[in-house]
Amino acid sequence: MSSRSERLSAFLIVFLFAVMSVYGDNAYSKVLSLEKEGKVSQALELCYKELRSNKNDAPDKILDCIFRMESNTGRILEIVASCGDRVQDKHRIYSQTAALALMCGSNETAQQYYDKVYLADPVPANLNSLYMSAVLLYEQGELESSLSKLNMIIAGNQQTLGQKAQVMAGAVQMSMGKKSEGTACLDKVLAAADCPEEVLFLVYDVASAFSMTDMKNKAVSRLKKDGFEGKLAASDNSIPATPSRIFISSDSVEKTTLVSKVGAVHKEDSSDRPAYIQTGSFSSLANAKNLADRIRGLGLEPEIQTTSSNGSQINKVIIRVTDTMDVNNVTIMLKDCGIPTYLVF
Q: 3-class SS at 320?
C-alpha cells in the first residue's frame, strides 16, 4: 500500500511541476506578445506579477524581458533579489545584475552579486568576478576581506588578472600600513617580462595615489604609449581610468568623481558629463561589431557610428551616457575587461 502511495505522490509532484511550467511559458508568451505590440508598461506589469506570484520556478526568461524593457534600475535590482535561489542560470543573471548595479553606483549591491557569480561556479574562468568583488570591498574599507580574495586570484591565475590582483593587493597592504609588503607586490609585477600595458597603467595609478615617485617612473618607462605623461598633463583628470582611480582615496585624484564609503555617488554637474564613451575605432565593420558584442555581454548598450575620413570609412563603437549612468564605474568595468575608453564631451 505504501509503494502505491509513494507512486501517487511522485505522480502528483510531476503533474504539478508540469502545470507550473506551462503556466510560466504561457505568461512568457503573453509578455512577448505585449512587447511586440509596443505595450511595454503592460508587459512589465505582467512580468512583475508573474515573478511575485512565486508560481514560476524558472524565472530567467521573465527576468531577461525585464532587463530588456525596464528603465528603472532600482526595480530591476529589487525583483532579481526577490527571485532568490529560483534563478537557474545564476552566472548569467547575476553577472548582468552586478554590471547594472555597478553602472548605477550601487557598489555594495554590485559586490554582493559579483560574489554570487563566483560562488555559483567557482572555477578559474570566473576569477574576474572575484576580482571585482575584491576591489569593491577595498572601496568599502573591508581591507582584510579584499586582500583574502585578491590572494585567491593570485594563487589561481598567473596571467594578466593575477598581475592586476597583485597590484591591488599591494594597494590594500599599503592602505593597511604595510608599506614594505605593498611595495614588494608592485616590484614583483614590474619584474615580470610580460607585463601588459593595462597592468602598467594600474601600477602607475597606485604609485601615483601613494606618492611613490620611483615606482611611478618605473611604470612609465615600461609603457609603450608615446607621450604618456604629456597626455595625462593635458587632461583635467590626471589619473587614468583604472580600478584604483575609484578605489583609492587620495589627494592626487581629488578632481575625479569618487565613490563614497556608503556607495553613494557624488554627482557631477551635468555640463561636465561626457556625451558618450568611445571604446574603439575601426576601418573594419566586422571588428567594430565584435567589440560591440563584447560590450553588450557586460550589460551595456553600445552603438556603432560610421563616418568617413579622407575617403576611408571609420566605425566607432560608443556608449551613450545617460542621466543615471555612473561614468566612472562603467569606465572601470570596461578597462577591467581590457577595453580602452575615451570620454567625448
A: strand
User: What pLDDT shows up at residue 246?
Assistant: 36
Report d(CA 338, CA 277) in Å as an integer.
Answer: 15
89-107 pLDDT, tens per residue? 999 899 889 888 887 778 8
Q: Which three cell numbers stand for residue 79?
A: 525583483
Residue 70 DSSP SS3: coil
Task: Could you please state the CATH topology (level 3) that the domain comprising 270-344 is classified under.
Answer: Alpha-Beta Plaits (3.30.70)
Instruction: Round to whole Å and give the CA distance between 19 and 15.
Output: 6
Instruction: Report yes or no: 141 and 261 within 8 Å, Cβ to Cβ.
Output: yes
Q: Please state whether beta strands 302-309 and 276-282 pair in parallel, antiparallel, or not at all (unpaired).
A: unpaired
Domain residue extents for the chain: 270-344
Which residue is it, cell 521573465?
Answer: 62
Residue with cell 551635468: 270
Q: Are 110 and 122 in contact (CB under 8 A)?
A: no
Read off the pTM.
0.64
Measure the CA–CA gap between 206 and 186, rounded to whole angstroms.
Answer: 9
What single-letter amino acid sits at 137? L
Torsional sign, CA 332, 305, 38, 56: negative
Nearest-angstrom CA–CA distance, 279 and 158: 27
How many Å apart are CA 138 and CA 148, to the nearest integer?
Answer: 11
- Distance, in Å, from the CA atom of 318 to the CA atom of 343, rounded to the nearest integer, reads 10
Structure-block grid coordinates of residue 294:
563584447
- Cα-based distances in Å from 102 to 130, 154, 336: 14, 24, 13
